[in-house]
From TrEMBL:
It is an enzyme of class 5 (isomerase). GO terms for cellular component: cytoplasm. The keyword DNA repair does not apply. Keywords: Isomerase. GO terms for biological process: carbohydrate metabolic process. This is glucose-6-phosphate 1-epimerase. One of its GO terms (molecular function) is glucose-6-phosphate 1-epimerase activity. SUPFAM superfamilies: Galactose mutarotase-like. PANTHER family: APOSPORY-ASSOCIATED PROTEIN C-RELATED (PTHR11122), GLUCOSE-6-PHOSPHATE 1-EPIMERASE (PTHR11122:SF35). Belongs to the glucose-6-phosphate 1-epimerase family. It comes from Eleusine coracana subsp. coracana. It catalyses: alpha-D-glucose 6-phosphate = beta-D-glucose 6-phosphate. Pfam families: Aldose_epim. The lineage of its organism: Eukaryota, Viridiplantae, Streptophyta, Embryophyta, Tracheophyta.
Length: 237
C-alpha cells in the first residue's frame, strides 16, 4: 500500500499477485490546490457541496504528517469503517465499458438523492447498479456492507462501513471526463467510485464528544462471484 502525504490519500493498493486494485488517473495532479484524482481520498468535514466549505472539504488538499507514536487501534472486531474505492480493470479486459460486467450490490430498494437531477429523491428499482451513463447518486441509510462485483476479473470487493450512514456512487462518463483537466478522456471506462459518507444528516460533535471512522476493504476470491454464494455474507461466515 502507498499513501501520499498530500491529502493523506491512499494511492496504491496491490493484492498478493501484485495487481493494482485502485484506480489512479494518468493525469492526476499531486500538488495544491487540486485534489488527487483517484485512490482513496478523505472527504472531510463534508461531502461534495453539502456544506459551507469547498468541494469535499479541506482534508483532501492539505499536507499531512506521519505520527511516529500513534494511539493503538481498537481491538473490537465489530468496528468497521467507510471506504472510497475506485476499481480499475485492465485495458485488455475492457475494450469498451462493460454494461453488466461490473455491478454494485447491496443498495437495492434504497432511497437516493440524484445529484444530476437537482438532488431529487428517488428509490432504487434495479436488483443491482450497472453503468451505462453518467451517475452521481447518494444512497441514504445504506447497509453496512456493499459489494462491487467484477465478473470479467472474477472477483468481488466487499466494502464495510461504520459511522457514515450514506453511500455515494459516481462515474463521470464521457462528456464530463473530457471536461476534467486531471482525468483522462476515456478513463471513465475503467473506474467507478463507491464512497460512504454522511450527507443527509451531517455529523455534529459537541465539545468533548468523539467520532471515529475505520476502513475495511476485502477482495473476495473469484469463486464467490459465481452466484452460488452471497458476497455480502462471505465475511460473516
Amino acid at each position: 500500500m502507498q499513501v501520499c502525504l498530500y491529502g493523506g490519500q491512499v494511492t496504491s493498493w496491490k493484492n498478493d499477485h501484485g495487481e493494482e486494485l485502485l484506480f489512479m488517473s494518468s493525469k492526476a495532479i499531486f500538488k495544491p490546490p487540486k485534489a488527487i484524482r483517484g485512490g482513496i481520498p478523505i472527504c472531510f468535514p463534508q461531502f461534495g457541496a453539502h456544506g459551507n466549505l469547498e468541494q469535499h472539504g479541506f482534508a483532501r488538499n492539505r499536507f499531512w504528517t506521519i505520527d511516529n507514536n500513534p494511539p493503538p487501534l481498537p481491538l473490537n472486531p465489530a468496528i468497521k469503517a467507510f471506504v472510497d474505492l475506485i476499481l480499475k480493470p485492465s485495458e485488455e479486459d475492457l475494450k469498451i465499458w462493460p454494461h453488466s460486467e461490473v455491478r454494485v450490490e447491496g443498495l437495492e430498494t434504497m432511497d437516493y438523492l440524484d445529484n444530476l437531477k437537482a438532488k431529487e429523491r428517488f428509490t432504487e428499482q434495479g436488483d443491482a447498479i450497472v453503468f451505462e451513463s453518467e451517475i452521481d447518486k447518494v444512497y441514504l441509510s445504506a447497509p453496512s456492507k456493499i459489494a462491487i462485483i467484477d465478473h470479467e476479473k472474477k472477483r468481488t470487493f466487499v466494502l464495510t462501513k461504520e459511522g457514515l450512514p450514506d453511500a455515494v456512487v459516481w462515474n463521470p462518463w464521457d462528456k464530463k471526463a473530457k471536461a476534467m483537466q486531471d482525468f483522462g478522456d476515456v478513463e471513465y471506462k475503467h473506474m467507478l467510485c463507491v464512497e460512504p459518507a454522511a450527507v443527509e444528516r451531517p455529523i455534529t460533535l459537541k465539545p468533548g464528544e468523539e467520532w471515529k471512522g475505520r476502513l475495511a476493504i476485502s477482495a473476495v476470491p473469484s469463486s464467490y462471484c459465481s452466484g452460488q454464494l452471497d458476497p455480502l455474507k462471505v465475511l460473516q461466515g
